[in-house]
Amino acid sequence: MCRHLGYLGAPVSVAELMLDPAHGLLHQSYAPRRQTHGLLNADGWGVGFLDGTDVRRWRSAAPLWGDASFASIAPALRSGCVVAAVRSASPGMPIEASATSPFTDGCWLLSHNGAVDRAVLPHTDRAESVCDSALLAALLFARGLDNLAATVVEIGAAAPSARLNILAGDGTRLLATTWGETLSVLNLGTGVVLASEPYDDDPRWRDIPDRHLVEVDAHGVRLMPLERR
Q1: Would residue 131 show up in a list of annotated catalytic residues for this protein?
Q2: Of the residues 2, 81, 107, 131, which is catalytic?
């Protein structure tokens, strides 16, 4: 239960993606337009980006709208691969920076929009938090992101009520799934944005159908249906 965004393309500032758009993540933190679970996203925010081959992150358990320091620095943070999120914590989950997307294995940045019963996820000491999203991220990293589709289908079968929208980037690719939550894509020509909901009213935004895998790389955007086995 959050809103997230991924970008791959020519370097842009983090502010251009998160703060400047009329309905960007800043606006979505207090007035999301397409969110169906929860009314706002005040339980933290996070952004990660590739700096060369190094993964950088800034996460907080406070609402995005109250972080003046980030607002002053975000225009200076530039990257060609960004993953960011604002969080609405699932009931019973901790509200702490370590429970906030994006998570990382040192190569990939990963965000989870949704909820999943922790009983279907293996316990691991490698998770950054005990929350459902962190445990799910640890499992996806352990299985490998090339197996994202199969893992999401497997978890969806084990937990039919789960919502499993995943968004991940490693500097050369964005991978995403739609499973119970919304996702839209915007091709800017110089880059591609994947987002839980459009951050402006540009007519080029396209909605991704539910239960699909999305892959973005230098060759374009590809969609593949996700099917239960």
Answers
A1: no
A2: 2
